[in-house]
Amino acid sequence: MRKITAVALFSIAGFLAAGDALAQDQSLKATIPFDFSVGNNVLPAGTYTVTRESQSIVLIHNAGTTGALAVGMPDNRESEHGKELVFVSYGDHYFLHEILGGSGSINLDFPATRREKQVRQQLATLQKPSEILIAAR
Q: Which residue, 45, 51, 96, 116, is the most exposed by fewest CB within 10 angstroms?
């Protein structure tokens, strides 16, 4: 019985280590030069690490205490420039729209939030939205 328990514990430890290695492979780092919104959170400009927490959830955090969990939809679109974060801007408001981490990595699309829709509607008559790409490592 002890042998079975030891084998089971060893197997579980192996899966946990493989999960940690997979999580490290599925992260990216980017310096974002402007404040931006992700989900219902506004994050300040800075260097952020994006780590996949599950199939559709990522943790976006900087070296300090700032961070947010974001829920997206899996995206099959391939990046033309390598790993990148795609933002949509309306005036000086920036919203994380997509994460393209390459094949087998983090590829998520984030639907427009209520706040983004409000800003878009307010600025619709003033100017056209633009898409901003931030290269990530």
A: 45
